[in-house]
Please model this.
Amino acid sequence: MTTDYAATAPSTPALARAGRGRFMRRDTLLLALVFLPPALLLFTVFVALPIADAAYYSLFNWNGFGVPEKFVAFQNYAQLFANRAFRLAITNNGLIILVSLLVQMPLALLVATMLADREPLTNTFRLIFFLPYVLAEVTAGLIWRFIYDGDYGVVANMVGWLGLDPVYVLADPNFAIYAILVVIVWKYFGLHMILFIAGLQQIDRSLYEAARIDGAGGWRLFTAITLPMLAPTIRLSIFFSVVGALQLFDVIMPMTGGGPSDSTQTLVTYLYNFGITRTRFGFGSAVGVVLFLICVAFAFGYKRTVMRDD
Amino acid sequence: MKLQALLAALALSTSITAAAAQADVITVVHVEQNPAVQEFWEGIAKKFEAANPGVDIQYEYLDNMSFVQKMTTMLQSADRPDIIYSWAGGVLRSQVEAGVIADITDSLDPGFADTIKPAALDAFKVDDRIYGVPFRMTQVGLFYNKDLLEQGGVDPASLSTWDGFLAGIATLKQKGITPLLVGGADKWPMMFYWSSLSLRAGGSEAFKAALAQEGDGFASAPFVRAGELLQQLVATEPFQPGYMATKYAAAAGMLGDGKGAMMLIADFVLNGMKANAADGVGIPLDRLGLAPIPTVPDGVDEPTATLGGINGWLVTEGASPLAPKFLEFFMQADNQRPAAENSFYIPAVKGLDGDLANPIHQVIAQNLSNSTYHQNFYDQALGSSVGAVVNDISVEIAAGNMTPEEGAQAVQDAYAMEQ
Model:
């Protein structure tokens, strides 16, 4: 190796650069060889292999004992797509994404614009709006289960004052998902609000001053300066919303557990309820693979197109 | 050489002491939440430890759901517990097939089997070999609040037929009393209705035939009939409002609070009612009654067929040889007597029925000893996967999302797929 290097010893500046380049490459290769294995090993053992395993298990009817033996090819997938609860779960995930983008983000943006400037009490309000996000998901779910309770809950009391018949929001397959959507918006809009506040504070104030001098009004300032300057943050926020929506699990479990009549299942609660608790690990793996493919397709597609320049 | 020999000897001795130390610890994983029962079991362990110096019994509590989810992995790991809790049925069968549960037929004292109630022990046999030791039996029945029935003018005796039961519900509703309580969110409480009704519609023969996949299996007439009867019941709107979002514990608490007149449930509700009632006490036991599951029109008249649960202990493969001995000790009548006297549960050992302090336990013990066929809970008997389908369809039929035919067919499909 050293002799090889000595033989191609540089004689011209250009060659010298090339030689140094090669030397650097070798150096980085060495560095890579030293530093890569731990990370690669961890990634392989805890990420790549489990994904490969899940893909393999998804072709079997397997209760988790011993090694999978009953090969069923794509039967788990066929069953999955024929299953009403799975279709409901997909629809619900879509609904959650939609509400995250159309309700939660505009709301977060609105509140962020109000709280971005340093004025008295802004910090207090930021904290208040951010608080639900800090709360543990399961705790939030239990609190809201109590709020929605038709006999003892807050909703029950409110309905009682109005003199109406008690309503049982979480017991109604037609309404339970909307009740959960309210909680999701409440729980996560604080995160997006903080992202937007950070983004807003990056915007140069002189832009606004210049625009004002040119006679721009509030709405014009928002559409011509705030929105374009905030675009990278918005794109990031959308990414978090969608990925978060796809992974939604722990707020729902304490509230409805996916019921009534599977009307509030998401892909992950479906995986849990139909794969893990039933010890149908082959079937559960098939759900996992579908979820994985959706996430990967979105993440790569989004990064390649929308977040290309970020 | 000398050094090598010394090292080898050292290694051998440490491994022996390590093995000896390990053999002395018996871990028992269970799902019993009641601290009083845990304390009672701890006492039995202390006695066993005193009689067997060097033995250390360690109980580990897991909640129901975690237990079910962790057990498959736990049983296949090197540090699996020695003894685990079990509901027998299909889950036990798949564990035995996987070779993780020890056949303890020959480890038990030859006379031991005779001390246990046969129906309970049978549940822990697979191909005539004993794989577990039952400690408790429960029975499903119609638990009712005597005061509320009196207030509504309903005679408990009239509840024993389907028509009388429906008439009673109508009367209670007229009086503004919630007739039935159910924890629909947990699904299995609704399964109690479907399985009780199929037991009354087809008797033990229907279930045995379905298990053997004779005829239409679980899609046969009695199981469709059960769904029709359930629909008929739901049409009268007998349950507490919002029952699809009520969990079992909350429903049991409502029984204790006197918020509903009746509950089709097993006798573990006596603990559940107490623990979840607002005052922590619930209805006094003498104000609570137990009626049998109503007989149904055109059903099979088999009053001695009972439905309920059987809980017990399994010894895992490779467990300490003392584990079966501990279970024998655990199940000695003298050691189980406090469970009867303190109304913890109905022990599966013979000869303690006279010691039962709880009047409802006495009635159930009588029913169980007269029982000619004790059907384990469907969701246990059929295993975790098919069992969950039974729970699903019970709720879906009640919610009107599935016809009785579709429900029965779904159970049949799930069961056939497992065969």
Notes: Residues 1-21 of chain A have pLDDT under 50 and may be disordered.
